[in-house]
Amino acid sequence: MVSAATTYWLERAWTGDRMVDGVAVSVEDGRFVRVEQALPGDAERLAGLTVPGFANCHSHAFHRALRGRTQAGRGSFWTWREQMYAVAGRLTPDSYYALARATYREMVSAGYTGVGEFHYLHHQGDGTAYDDPNQMAKALLAAAHDAGIRITLLDTCYLAAGFGRPPEGVQVRYSDGDAEAWAKRVEGLASGDGRLVGAAVHSVRAVPREQIPTVVEWADVRRAPLHVHLSEQTAENDACIAAHGATPSELLADAGAWGPRASAVHATHLTEGDIALLGASGTHACLCPTTERDLGDGIGPSRELHTAGSPLTLGSDSQAVVDPFEEMRAVELDERLATRERGHWAAEELIAAGTVQGHRSLGFPDAGRIEVGARADLVVLDTATATMAGTGGDVASVVFAATAADVRRVMVDGRWVVGVEDRAQVGAELRAAIERIWEG
Amino acid sequence: MVSAATTYWLERAWTGDRMVDGVAVSVEDGRFVRVEQALPGDAERLAGLTVPGFANCHSHAFHRALRGRTQAGRGSFWTWREQMYAVAGRLTPDSYYALARATYREMVSAGYTGVGEFHYLHHQGDGTAYDDPNQMAKALLAAAHDAGIRITLLDTCYLAAGFGRPPEGVQVRYSDGDAEAWAKRVEGLASGDGRLVGAAVHSVRAVPREQIPTVVEWADVRRAPLHVHLSEQTAENDACIAAHGATPSELLADAGAWGPRASAVHATHLTEGDIALLGASGTHACLCPTTERDLGDGIGPSRELHTAGSPLTLGSDSQAVVDPFEEMRAVELDERLATRERGHWAAEELIAAGTVQGHRSLGFPDAGRIEVGARADLVVLDTATATMAGTGGDVASVVFAATAADVRRVMVDGRWVVGVEDRAQVGAELRAAIERIWEG
């Protein structure tokens, strides 16, 4: 019987553990069935440097509409949020679908093969449910399907404007009333091929303490991912301590939220005790460095969290930047600015955060490596661009030099989503000039 | 008599003062001879968003060979410097020319139309002069010419390994022995069309206090730019105070270095007195944010310097990143990380820093604006890319969303250096989805 597998020959590849020159990979039913160093033979040849697909673990697709439009004047996270709410108020299921599909296409073209969509825009403008109460969520699932990206829909419980305050303004679109009603609605959503339904607690501001366990239990029963915005702003910490005498990390620990299926998003302003709680539970720390820069959130304790036991993951969040390479290196570069030392994170650790750790946190532990049995995601980088030429071809060149614009082809679950484009620029000359120096 | 001017019609342009839709520009002998809002007529049409050319005010061209190759292990500025010195030891006039030409081509393709090359790699490996003692400088001038970028060659005086220490190792290639010999050698270099010879004091570490006035005087007599690496590291400040009882800013003020033709490069770790000295003199503050991130230098007091009277300029320095847009926004984004507030720098101020202020600091006060009489530099951005689509078309979209990969055509002094490339991606769909929300 003839195999239906398709074989490609990768000129050079980072498999997840090591860099290999000349790798034959065969793909069948969306998975790698062969990965081995080999001669090209008659396989289709993929030039450049191929890496596993990246996981975008924290996305608000609709924020893409804000890029370039929120930079006027002074302000803080909170004034930015007013502008974001203005967009949230305008979206319909149709326009949400179109915006999300386009945004997910941008993500795939940048090398992301999976997205965790932190979705709370559930209802109509007046707060009443659509005829199908999951119409907005289904718009996102359809957008991801049509853009060819895997999605973990983190259906988000959002019930309050703040500690002891009912939803205000556009927030009526977010609220299901209580966590039971949230859980009941989410029952109408089904996981499927390349599509997983998970849960999110928006934040300790937006979900009253006594409601949180319902969401946690929903996720526990289904072994589903559970994400939470955590301590992005010191104001949230202050209000939480004032209301409950506990930090947000402590409050969520009491509710049973933390563990290996959980992701603490941002995790910027933590106490040593918070870090210990998150680390000991194996909760993922999902940093969104380009957004945290843009919003002036601060620099989260990524290395301390890693040391304590929290695997790092990454998200594009506000879509100010959609570039997994920029996201990876920003973790290290921001640490350098904060400490005046280099070398907090090795490139190998950052690409693991961007790939395998991220996919695992989204409920796809079988993605993010080029190995037999894994989901067949491939990101082919053009190493001949002005940006990449001469950078040496080590994993550090991927993490510290590549940009989204260097991505040429992207495969998700065995299917090519982004095709070949020839954008070769001044790179050939750069490469020649630099190789002459290093090898001369 | 028929005019030899060529006319282009810009769909949308930032002239330096305002955003205008539909601008006819005529170019003759390398300058704009007409700039006015008009209908397209039969002029060649430049779609997208056109901005003035950017000035890269601090470049070490040869550092481009290090991109992606210096990220292993821990370390600091000083361990990075060891790797940089390894490259410096290998360069010949031929390989320096080839590397610089390629690097300058990358710069032009990213939107830079002028470069300030801080050049100190003067002599042979054993410290003896080449037959033509300016052979290395001439390699750089030829490289810039052949790449089509204007150059201000900041010929750099570098005499010592540190306070009271003679040159060590590869530094013998840098040293002319004393400032008089430096000045004599530099006399062999001539300014010309699109080429200006200026001076640099490498740093207070590398030029003994009593030698600095000779370099300052050389620049004063010629009304030439004078650049200095200033207080990039606290170790330099400490050593300077220990040796001389003065900060580097104070020492250089005593030597008469500061003034409107001067640029203080980095200016990271300054006292309030230093900021007052630099500002009162009108000295430019040349920040290199992407390099300062990479090296863990810290975040310089850009806004305080601006307020004190020092115009901001920008440089790509180590070539870890060659992207004028990233450089502009990094100034603001790093301030946000440091302060947790947004809005330190307006987009209009940042693009002025990246263009007109930069060119002025390099001795080209007639560049950086699209106006009659100015040097005809144009950078045409594709606003249909995945990165730029839907960003609104204001100057903030240029500063906060554009990347080097969005640049399609670049004109320097009336000549097209970078041509049209069609890299349209998923942008059309993004734009449609977003405009529907904002305009619907």
Descriptive overview:
2 copies of one chain form a homodimer. By secondary structure, the first copy, chain A, is of the alpha/beta class. In chain A, 35% of the residues lie in helices and 21% in strands. In chain A, helix 2 packs parallel to helix 3 and helix 12 crosses helix 14. The first copy, chain A, is globular. The relative contact order of chain A is 0.15. About 3% of the residues of chain A have low confidence.
E-strand count of chain A: 16
Mean of residue pLDDT of chain A?
92
Fraction in beta strands of chain A:
15-25%
Shape of chain A: globular
Taking pLDDT < 50 over at least 5 consecutive residues as the criterion, the unreliable ranges of chain A are: 420-431
Instruction: Calculate the terminal CA-CA distance of chain A, rounded to whole Å.
Output: 52 Å
Task: Say what oligomer this is.
Answer: homodimer
In percent, how helical is the residue content of chain A? 25-40%
Outline:
With about 450 residues, the first copy, chain A, is α/β, with parallel strands linked by helices. In chain A, about 35% of the residues lie in helices and about 20% in strands.
List the main descriptive attributes of the protein structure presented here.
eight-stranded parallel beta sheet; 440 residues; four-stranded mixed beta sheet; 15 helices; alpha/beta; homodimer
List the helices and strands and how they pair.
The structure is a homodimer of 440-residue chains.
Chain A: E1 6-14, E2 19-28, E3 31-37, E4 44-46, E5 49-51, E6 54-59, H1 77-90, H2 93-110, E7 112-119, H3 135-147, E8 150-157, H4 179-186, E9 195-201, H5 212-222, E10 226-230, H6 234-244, H7 248-254, E11 262-266, H8 272-281, E12 284-287, H9 289-295, H10 302-308, E13 312-314, H11 324-339, H12 347-354, H13 356-361, E14 378-381, H14 395-401, E15 407-412, E16 415-418, H15 427-439
Parallel strand pairs in A: 1-4, 6-7, 7-8, 8-9, 9-10, 10-11, 11-12, 12-13
Antiparallel strand pairs in A: 1-2, 2-3, 5-14, 14-15, 15-16
